[in-house]
Amino acid sequence: MKKIAIVDREVCVACGVCRKACPKGAMEIWRGCYAQADPVSCVGCGLCAKNCPTDCIRIQERGEGK
Questions:
Q1: What is the C-alpha end-to-end distance of the chain, expressed in Å?
Q2: What is the pLDDT averaged over residues 5-29?
Q3: 10-30 exposure pattern, b = at least 16 Cβ within 10 A, e = fewer
Q4: pLDDT (tens digit, 9 = 90+) per residue, 34-45?
Q5: Is residue 4 a contact partner of residue 64, using CB atoms and an 8 Å limit?
Q6: How many helices (H) and strands (E) does the chain have?
Q7: What does residue 21 show for φ and ψ, rounded to 5 degrees?
Q8: 3 burial via Cβ count (<10 Å: 0-12, 13-18, 19+)
Q9: pLDDT digits (tens, 9 = 90+) for 53-66
Q10: Is the pTM of this model over 0.85?
Q11: Helices marked H in 1-66 — which ranges?
């Protein structure tokens, strides 16, 4: 099953590190408040989560938690 990056918006500080780490350009900073993954572009590789200084990104199976 495919994976996707999920951001904890309460913890994210919108620093942009995940955006720079993403090889697909799937991470974006939403209105300067928090990061989020574009569901079309994100391949769930986990580089954003590994580089996040606040540890607010996790990788999960698509559709999990719905």
A1: 15
A2: 97
A3: eebebeebbbebbeeebbbee
A4: 999 999 999 999
A5: no
A6: 2, 4
A7: -80, -20
A8: middle
A9: 999 999 999 876 55
A10: yes
A11: 17-21, 47-51
